Amino acid sequence: MNGPIGFEIRARSGVCNARTGVVSTPHGTFQTPAFMPVGTKGTVKGILPAQVEATGAEILLNNTYHLLVRPGPELVSKMGGVHKFMNWHRPILTDSGGYQAYSLSDTNKVDDDGVTFKSIVDGSTIRLTPERAVEVQNLLGPDILMALDDCPPSIDPNVERPSQARLESVVKRDSGGLSARGARRSAYDHIARLDLANERTVRWLERCIRAHQRKGDQGLFGIVQGGTDLDRRRWSAERIGALDCPGFAIGGVAVGESADDIARIVRFTAPLLPDSKPRYLMGVGYERDLYEAVRAGVDMFDCVLPTRNGRNANAFTTNGQLRLRNAKYADDPSPIEVGCDCDACTPGPNGHFSRGYLRHLFMADEMLGPMLVTIHNLRHFQRFMADLRQTIASDHWSTFTTRWPVALGRAPEIPSK
Amino acid sequence: MNGPIGFEIRARSGVCNARTGVVSTPHGTFQTPAFMPVGTKGTVKGILPAQVEATGAEILLNNTYHLLVRPGPELVSKMGGVHKFMNWHRPILTDSGGYQAYSLSDTNKVDDDGVTFKSIVDGSTIRLTPERAVEVQNLLGPDILMALDDCPPSIDPNVERPSQARLESVVKRDSGGLSARGARRSAYDHIARLDLANERTVRWLERCIRAHQRKGDQGLFGIVQGGTDLDRRRWSAERIGALDCPGFAIGGVAVGESADDIARIVRFTAPLLPDSKPRYLMGVGYERDLYEAVRAGVDMFDCVLPTRNGRNANAFTTNGQLRLRNAKYADDPSPIEVGCDCDACTPGPNGHFSRGYLRHLFMADEMLGPMLVTIHNLRHFQRFMADLRQTIASDHWSTFTTRWPVALGRAPEIPSK
Fold first, then answer.
1. Predicted ipTM beyond 0.90
2. Are strands B144-146 and B219-224 parallel, antiparallel or unpaired?
3. Do the Cβ atoms of B357 and A331 come within 8 Å?
4. Which of A85, A352, A361 best probes binding to B when mutated, by most B CB atoms within 10 angstroms?
5. A87: chain B residues, CB-CB within 8 Å
6. 10-residue mean pLDDT series, chain A (417 residues)
């Protein structure tokens, strides 16, 4: 390896594109496929860094947008960078801030040079160009930073986005009539916007690479766009993948598509990215999505599901999610999941935390409920990834979905007793 | 010892009434003087039981009122009692529920047989008699339960409570005139209410003792009342202290008095209680209050200060509280207190949590802020109590207030750097 980010593939499946490996960074290594807990504002909500580590997480993600608007990258830099600031000594990846700039602001404006948006903290106007996005991440100091990409909204606020099938049918034929013309215009507009985003994303990555000031201790990943259109995904993957980055991400997924659409895009796109570099599927997802993506050759993931759902009393199990506010759990003495080795489920000197107790905590609005289910959910995802890594190494896939039925779909809530 | 609660005094000061000892319960022992963290609704807010234990706490308190209104004592009993329910294997003490019945409801009605109030959860009418208060605590299953007492409000909602000096002056002379008559009537009313509360509290304790169904594995403490009037405190201490309880509490303190008043009442009352049984000062307090009370011969304390103030960004130090939202801490790299061995202040693989980071967490409304300062504050109070126990054993008091200047008063906020 020449740069600060290395990737060594340790094992490959013979029946699918899955591989296991180790990514090395200035703050140590992490095994792949890896699931990164999301520490939005410099903290994984409701859990101490040592507890995050105890779940098995070896790398986490911070959101540049949130740290940009508060406390600001200059302060984080002054405090020694994001590792020291949040007291996490293992690898950190930051996104570029672009996604939140698009999604959290009603009034963002994108042009060829960047995106302008209003801060959700104080309403001030913030300008993010490729150069500033990199500068901010150079100040924050993660091991891996992400290029600013143009991620067009999945659903345009003014124009309903056509489905892939409708898009193709509308583009291929002109059926005449006013509403058909409208649909056709929408579809053409959408395609034009996708093409523009694709081209901009390549130009912006080139600018990010030039702007990157800490090439010795930070690696910059590029991001593939292209929406749900496979030709555009191929165009983007080929252009982005040709640039000099230590890893590449698949972006613009998990912005509203079905699980089937996600799998279709990922199965198509992942193999187009350089085999020797880690592939990162941004913002995904449920266990089924992770399972499909790992089999397609993806190495890294992040998602707010375990933490966000945990705070909302939804606990992940191998069979699906438990909604712990449900009255049927009021007197249920069992742990969230028998056999789980997380600090919520493992018996201590006085037993485990019961579903009945957890329900009480959520009904009484007590912090300990979100804290415990966050611990459990993060451990659930780490156990899932660890089993996937073992399964890739052994290439014995047949029993995986027996251990993790949830990998076959979003199973309904399981019975409580 | 005959009952489930034993008390062995290990050392006595030769210069004050302080003593150290060990209280034994069905769930193990705790050293005295002891500070009990408050786990209102069956959880110490924002901290896992194992973390509470790691702060050095050996016993904690649950509020009967809160567990009575939700999830209800029958459910807690069905789930195996409050130890198993909240997953805390060491001793637990519950209060009687009376204090919250008086203080949380605008519409409570006290009569000779008990108190009637509306639930803060669903507005339903709840009746607490001495018998029901004991039954509820028999169901909850703590090691130590408290008798229902009549705790008259420190400040009557309709009649401003006269100061002790004014009370005495008004009672002793009749200065004539309308406003003086009003003051005198208020004072007489207040004294009548104190006397009534005192007498009721004795009768109710006798009823609680008779009603107690788990004498084999739970100890029932009586509570001394009497307001700020020392004669009435003596009357109550003599009557209550003569009854067959394994320990006694001083109640009706820390309901609005000055630190001097608290010290005056405690110094007078504690020695009136049986020497051979643990003395518990309810709801107190700041370090200065604890210091004075320990020197007066008090053995047990509970207070929400470390947890409540911690959630509000106020961190206790040996020199006073830091208000961590203060802008001056924004770029302060130091821990809350150098030398503190709590999980927030102790350097880990990547340093400690800085004041600057903690301020960021509070400004960003992140759970981790309350969690970390709760851990620190609880450890602060446990370190304070451990030092007091050592100081009693060695009887070297002169250096104690050098190590803990805060024990001499509520010191102003210390400089940040």
1. yes
2. parallel
3. no
4. A85
5. 348, 350-353, 357
6. 89 98 98 98 98 98 97 98 97 94 83 93 94 98 97 53 46 42 66 88 98 98 94 97 98 86 96 98 96 98 98 97 98 97 90 96 98 98 98 97 91 47
Which candidate from B42, B79, B84 shows the least CB-CB separation from A350? B84
Mean of pLDDT over chain B? 90
pTM of the predicted model as reported, rounded to 2 decimal places: 0.92
**314-373 of B, contacting A, C-beta below 8 A:** 330-331, 333, 343, 348-354, 356-357, 360-361, 363-364, 366-368, 370-372
Contact A368 B46 (CB under 8 A): yes
Residue of chain B nearest A88, judged by CA positions: B350
More confident of the two residues B167 and B274: B274
8 A C-beta contact, residue B233 and residue B269: yes
Q: How far apart are CA A198 and CA A150, in angstroms?
A: 7
At residue B160, does pLDDT exceed 70?
A: no
Domain ranges of chain B: 28-263, 311-408
Q: Is A387 a catalytic residue?
A: no
Regarding predicted confidence, which is higher, B106 or B353?
Answer: B353
Give the nearest chain B residue to A353 (CA atoms).
B87
Q: What is the pLDDT of residue A4?
A: 98
pLDDT at B189: 75
C-alpha A327/C-alpha B200 separation (Å) is 40
Q: For the range A75-79, what are the long-range contacts, defined as Cβ-Cβ under 8 Å and sequence gap of 24 or more?
A: A75/B330, A75/B331, A75/B356, A76/A42, A76/A139, A76/A140, A76/A141, A77/A139, A77/A140, A77/A141, A78/B331, A79/B331, A79/B333, A79/B354, A79/B356, A79/B357
CB B313 within 8 A of CB B377: no
How far apart CA A12 and CA A37 sit, in angstroms, is: 25
Q: Could you tell me which chain A residue has the CA closest to the CA of B345?
A: A87
- What is the Cα–Cα distance from B163 to B166, expressed in whole angstroms? 5
From chain A, pick out residues whose CB is under 8 angstroms from the CB of B50: 343, 348
Which residues from A are below 8 Å from B354, CB to CB?
79, 85
B371, closest residue in chain A (CA to CA): A46
Could you say which residues from 74 to 103 on chain A have a Cβ atom under 8 Å away from some Cβ of chain B? 75, 78-80, 83-89
pLDDT tens string B49-90: 999 999 999 999 999 999 999 999 999 999 999 999 999 999
Q: Which tokens is A216 given?
A: 């010795």
A145, A134 Cβ separation under 8 angstroms: yes
Rounded Cα–Cα distance for residues A143 and A28 (Å): 10
Best CATH choice for the domain B28-263 from the list 3.40.50.620, 3.40.50.2000, 3.90.190.20, 3.20.20.105 = 3.20.20.105
**Which of A95, A229, A289, A332 is flagged as catalytic?**
A95
Q: Determine the Cα–Cα distance for residues B166 and B228; give it in Å rounded to an integer.
A: 12
Instruction: Return d(Cα B38, Cα B284) in angstroms, integer.
Output: 11
Nearest to A217, CA basis, from A81, A322, A86: A81
When computed from its CA atoms, the radius of gyration of chain A, rounded to whole angstroms, is 22
Residues in Cβ contact with B94 at an 8 Å cutoff, skipping those fewer than 6 apart: B61, B62, B63, B64, B67, B82, B137, B140, B142, B144, B145, B146
CATH domain A6-303 topology? TIM Barrel (3.20.20)
Given this model, what pLDDT does residue A180 score? Answer: 55
CB contact under 8 A, B350 and A84: yes
CA distance readout (Å), A328 to A323, A356, A406: 10, 9, 22
DSSP per-residue letters across B368-410? HHHHHHHHHHHHHHHHHHHHHHHHHHHT--TTHHHH-GGGGS-
